[in-house]
């Protein structure tokens, strides 16, 4: 899998566009949630918020893939589930390595995996 550049500061930009408004709006929130953990590594609420918005987004995206009978759903869902298993174990104080992992995972997941469904889902 290609490894993509992590934005610094950690803010969504147009290179992450899927052109599904719901997905792009979710992704903006995910970037913000990870950046909040970066800025407040001792905050249980920032970690909880990050886990919550990730789970909600994955659920939304999986429903959209399912509604479109997208063939890559099972493999894609595995990646979501694996990431959730990892971040659900994160405790404060969050280590720099864990924050870097989350930042890199999201950037690469969007560009290597989410981008595969571009043009194939139903919602605009
Ligand atoms: Fe947008 Fe597959 O996460």
Give a quick precis of the structure.
Keywords: Iron, Metal-binding. The chain has 124 residues and is mostly helical.
Structural write-up:
- The protein is built from 4 helices and no strands.
- With 124 residues, the chain is mainly α.
- Helix 1 runs antiparallel to helix 2.
- The mean pLDDT is 97.
- The site of MU-OXO-diiron (FEO) has 11 residues, from helix 1, helix 2, helix 3 and helix 4.
What are the SSEs and their pairings?
Elements: H1 21-39, H2 44-67, H3 73-87, H4 96-112
Helix pairs in contact: 1-2, 1-4, 2-3
Bound molecules: MU-OXO-diiron.
Categorize the overall geometry: globular
Beta content = under 5%
**Judging by the overall fold, what is the CATH architecture?**
Up-down Bundle
Q: Might you state the CATH topology name?
A: Four Helix Bundle (Hemerythrin (Met), subunit A)
Number of helices: 4
Bound molecules: MU-OXO-diiron
Largest sheet: none
* CATH H-level superfamily title: Hemerythrin-like
């Amino acid at each position: 899998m290609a490894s993509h550049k992590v934005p610094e500061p950690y803010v969504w930009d147009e290179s992450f566009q899927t052109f599904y408004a719901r997905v792009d709006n979710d992704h903006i929130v995910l970037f913000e949630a990870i950046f909040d953990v970066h800025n407040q590594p001792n905050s249980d609420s920032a970690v909880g918020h990050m886990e919550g918005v990730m789970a909600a987004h994955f659920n939304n995206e999986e429903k959209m893939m399912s509604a479109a009978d997208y063939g890559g759903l099972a493999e894609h869902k595995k990646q979501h589930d694996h990431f959730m298993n990892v971040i659900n174990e994160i405790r404060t104080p969050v280590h720099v390595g864990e924050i870097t992992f989350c930042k890199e995972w999201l950037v690469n997941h969007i560009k290597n995996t989410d981008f595969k469904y571009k043009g194939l889902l139903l919602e605009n």
